[in-house]
Structure formats: C-alpha cells, structure tokens
Amino acid sequence: MFFLARSIFWLGLVFSWIPWHGDDGATVGPRAAAMSLAREAAVAAPAQIEAFCLKAPRDCLAAAGKAQQMLSIESLLEWDAANPAPPPVKTRQSGSI
Questions:
Q1: Domain for residue 61, yes or no?
Q2: Which domain holds residue 42?
Q3: Domain assignment present for 56
Q4: CA 38 to chain centre
Q5: What pTM does this model have?
Q6: Number of folded domains that form the chain
Q7: Is residue 43 part of a domain?
Q8: Are 33 and 20 in contact (CB under 8 A)?
Q9: Spatial contact of 4 and 45, defined as CB atoms under 8 Å apart
Q10: Within a domain: 54
Q11: CA 16 to CA 34: how far, in whole Å?
Q12: CB 72 within 8 A of CB 80
C-alpha cells in the first residue's frame, strides 16, 4: 500500500516538472491529462489505504511500523554509516605547455 502512495508522489512530482513547451493545442491535452491523473491518484490513495487498514488492521499497523522504521532518522544515519561515500575521483591536472 505504501508503494502505491510513494509511486503517486513521485509520478506527481515528475509530471509537475516536465517542461511543456509551446502554446499549441497539442501540449494542452497531455498536460491536462497528466494533471487529471495525478489528482485522481492523490484522491484515491488515501481511500485505498483506509480500506486496507479497515480490512486488515494488524497488517496495516505492521506496515506503518515498517514505514516509520525505514523513515526514521536513526535508520537513515545507520545506513549512511554502513554505506560510506565512494572516494573522490582523481582527475589529471593540466600543466603548463
């Protein structure tokens, strides 16, 4: 269920940042369709999550606990400590000719 919510968020973000150039009618249709789909998904997601939680409250609480654990600052810091950044790439410096 959280995958659906994350997907809706990221697709909405992507569709909102897509450049729509031109004032002709060809770009108005896709942009309006994308915004309509994003709006429908944003409205439907909470209802679907609520239905899931009403149908299986224990599974809902378990999923919420996992999401909270994944998004907690402690787990992010632990992951960051376990996965250090790669060393910087050395570039060749150009000398005088």
A1: yes
A2: 2-14+30-82
A3: yes
A4: 13
A5: 0.37
A6: 1
A7: yes
A8: no
A9: yes
A10: yes
A11: 9
A12: no
